[in-house]
Structures are given as structure tokens and as C-alpha cells.
Amino acid sequence: MMDGQDDWGDIPQIEDVTAADAQAEVKRLAGLDAAAYEGERKAVAQRLGWRASVLDTEVSKACPRGAGDDDSDDAPEAIETIEPWPDPVDGASLAEEIRDRLRAHVVFGATGDADCAAIWIIGSYLMETWRLWPRLLVTSPTKACGKSTLLEVIDAMAHRGFIVSNASAAAIFRAIEAWKPTLLLDEADTWMRENVELAGVLNSGHTRRTARVIRVQEVNGEHLPTAFSTWCPMAIAGIGAQRDTLMSRSIIISLRRKLPEESVERLPLDLHAQLLRIRRQIARWADDHAVTIGAMETEPPACGDDRMQDNFTPLWRIATALGGPWLDRIATAYVASAQAEDEDAEPAGIMMLRDIADIFAASRADRIATSEIVSDLIVMEERPWADWRHGRSLSAQSVAMQMKPFGVKARVLKLHGSSARVYQRSEVEAAAARYATQKRNPVTLKQNQEVRALSKRNPGREVTPENSNNALKIKEGYEVTPMGAGADGYAAQDDPHDPDNWK
User: Fold this and answer.
1) For position 113, what pLDDT does the model report?
2) Dihedral, CA atoms, 436, 440, 444, 446, nearest 10 degrees?
3) Which of 202, 248, 286, 372 could make a disulfide contact with 125, Cβ separation 3.0–4.6 Å?
């Protein structure tokens, strides 16, 4: 072995690279999982004197993975194919067991978070049913709140679960294409937030129709465009927020650090093996109900924005099919998510547009000087304008940049007898009506009618969410109770398994 080669660690060293040597190395790489391969590809390509893209092509040829080949020997051992449970399964009881298992090991930030996670796990077995499937975004304010633990528990119950703590965009879409897993991505705050290419891959997988990326591959000396699927369930865990585009495509689950008086169970070493029965039972329930759920058209009433309604629709349909307390629980979680989507989570431009609209609403003027708007923004409490950039307050130029995408521009017009740069009420109000009013829309008659129709499933049940303007809050009809209000959290219902009771 030549001097200096120790730097290559465990990668086999090739002194004089022959065709046989290169073929053996390619074969070795083909046996690695996606994460391990990604860690070695650049170094090996350099040793062989190849471009990394050429190495990718040769490795791909050495381990062809046909679409739909779930039983391929090329899949890592962690990717399993299971036999569904032999007998019919009571879905509501099974979901309860999943929920209890989740709550046993972590402390959730909100009651409905465990409910959403349980339904999401069941939905991972129904990916051929959905047009759209949300990401599950697990967040905490700091470390040591149980994010990795929760991913391990989800992995033990989800369909073909596969956990990774780092991966490139290419490794992710190739793994999805090859293995059709439920991907569980940990430590997202350390490697994902600033990765623009990865953000595009993650965003593309939100709806089935758009869940693909195209890359050029060399095939028999010819460079051809090749489509890779990005359609799979994906849970992502990290500290703090992620990109707005990812958060809007996600059901957000919050965790918190346990208090001394709170207790959680430690994960058993053989958790994945212990929960094989649950995985098989979910698979059976999903097989039995896929056609029924796929034919459903019911969806939650408008509450929050359209994207949130889209994200909760598949969970809503699973809950409808499960019966028992599950529709009530998901409705409660839906309300809580809408309430939690406060203005601090909005993009800065939308927040600023809303604030400027409020400034005009408090004034009778049809135009206000830029300097006055900047001053009014800076003094607003619980807003970032006074500390906008590295300790410096907002400037007129910053306001102009944030307003430009909405077609709102400062113009030189007469104000109090002299020329000044001003913003006009008409432009601000028109932009705000289009972009910044979704969270303040009153409940419409149509929404009330939809909720009343749902209330027939739960006669006599009255629970009041905190926000009186919420689409699920009406004086008579379907009112949601925060969980814990009763011993079992729900009252008697019409038989949820009777198709006549489905909306």
C-alpha cells in the first residue's frame, strides 16, 4: 500500500486501477445503503479517477432496482415487506394502541399531537390512496425533548420505516425510488434548513402528481433524462422551525422536555421486533379499508388556510373510517393547529403587509408617508421591526423590498401641501385582501352548513374551542372538546362503519 493512503479509512485502496479492480469496487458500493454510499462516493470516485456521476451510473447498473420491486435483495435489511394480519382488525382500538405507545415514550406539546401522529402512521400504509400526503414535522424548542425517540417509535410502526440522520438530495430521491420507504429524517436543524436542492425535493413530494424530480444519467454512453419518484411518507425532526414551504406542507408535532414529575418509558432494545404485530395489523386494516377511504369526498371545513385544510383532509378521512373518538380528536387537533398558526409564523412580507393594513385601518387618510409607516412599524410590540437586521431597525428600503412582490409601491405624491414618498390605502387594502386576510375571515354560511352536517354524527355533543371566530365554533352543531374533558373523551356516535353515516 502506498504512503498517505491511510487517509482513506476503510475504503479499499486500489494502487493500479484495472477494469477488474473498478468492477469489484462498484460491486462493493452497490451493496451499501443509500446513506453509506453517499458518504463514500466522492472519495472512491477520486481514487478511481472517475466523475462522481459516472460512478453513480455504474453503481446503479450493478444494482438495478425496478419500479415496484419491493422484495428486491438490494433493499437494506431495515426495509421490510410484511404479511398483513390474517384476521380483520378493529381500527379504532388499534389506533388507540398506537397512540398509547407514542405517549408512553415522549411528552407531546399538545394533546392532539399524539392523535395526529397515530393517524399519520396508519396513513403511511395507504400511499396508493392519496392525492396529497402531508409531511410530519416534529419540532422542539431545544435539545433533549425526545425527537429521536419519537422517530424510533414511529419507525417501529410505520410502513417500511427507515431512519437517517443525514443524506443528500440525490440519496433521498434515489432511496425513495428504490425502496418506497417511510423516510424518517432526524437532526434536520443541522443539515436540512439551508439546503436549497433538498428543499425542492422535499416540497415536490407533497402531492402525488408533482412527486418527481428529473436527473440526467449516462446509459450505454448516452445521457438520458431519468425521472425519480419523491412520493413517500416522510417524518422530519429538528429543533425550531424549518423553511416556510416545508412547514406549510406538514402536520406539525411539538415535543417538550419532561418535568421532574412527568415520566416516560425507556425504549426497549427490541422495540421494532415487539411491534411487528402492530405493523401487520395496520397493514390488514389498510388493505380492508383502502377502497372505501379512497372513495371518500368528505373533508374538514375551512379552518386556517387552504393548505392546512388539504393537509388534514387525509387524516380526517382515516379518522372517519376508524370511528370511535377519532373524528372528534382530529377535529380538535385541526382547530388547535389553526389557532397555533399565529402571525409570528407568517412570512415577513405577509406580516408586514398585515401591519401596514392595520395602520391604514386606524387612520382616515388615503395615503401615509413612508417615514410615518416605518415609525409606526418599529414601535409595534411583539414584532421584529425594531430589530430587523443585526440589531438595526427597519428602514424605508426594507419596507419597499417586502412590499414589492405584492404590487405595493411607495410613490411621490402630494401630502399636506408638499411632495413626499407615500403608500396609498387603495394599494395596501387590495393587496391585504388578497394575501393577508385568510386568518381573519369570518365563518361563512357554507362553513356552518358543513359543520352542522358533520354534527349529525355526534348528537348532543358540545365542546367549545377557545377561538370564537373559528370555523368549528358555532352555537349549535359540531363543537369540539379538548381531550381529557371526559373519561373516554367521546360520547356515543352513530355507527362509523355504516356507509349511510358517511358524508
Assistant:
1) 96
2) 60
3) 286
Which residues, 6+ apart, have CB-to-CB distance to 272 below 8 Å? 155, 156
Same domain, 103 and 245: yes
Helix (H) or strand (E) holding 99: helix 91-105
Q: Are residues 237 and 121 in the same domain?
A: yes
With left for phi above 0 and alpha for psi between -120 and 50, is residue 415 left, alpha or beta? Answer: beta
Q: Give the CB-side neighbour count of residue 400, counting CA atoms within 13 A.
A: 11
Do residue 289 and residue 163 come from a single domain? Answer: yes
Grid coordinates representing 16 are 493500479
Q: Are residues 46 and 144 in the same domain?
A: no
Q: How far apart are CA 190 and CA 166, in angstroms?
A: 9
Angle value at C-alpha 265, between 160 and 286, nearest 5 degrees: 30
Q: Say if residues 341 and 308 touch (Cβ distance below 8 Å).
A: yes
CA distance 403 to 90: 53
Helix 276-295 vs helix 91-105: crossing angle, to nearest 10 = 130
* pLDDT reading at 291 higher than 80: yes
Asked if 150 and 201 sit in the same domain, the reply is: yes
| pLDDT in the model for residue 219 | 79
Instruction: Give the phi and the psi of residue 91 in degrees, each rounded to 5.
Output: -65, -40
Domain boundary pick from 415, 439, 463:
439
Structural domain containing residue 114: 91-258+269-295
Q: Is the domain of 245 the same as that of 126?
A: yes
Residue 481 has pLDDT above 50, yes or no: no
Same domain, 166 and 223: yes
Is the pLDDT reported for residue 445 higher than 60? no
pTM over the 0.85 mark: no
| Joined grid coordinates for residue 436 | 393577508
Q: How many domains does the chain have?
A: 3
Q: What are 161's three cell numbers?
A: 420505516
According to DSSP, the β-strands at 135-140 and 250-254 are parallel
Separation in Å, CA 440 to CA 165, 228, 339, 452? 39, 40, 11, 21
pLDDT over 70, % of the chain: 78
Structural domain contains residue 38: yes
Residue 196 lies in a domain: yes
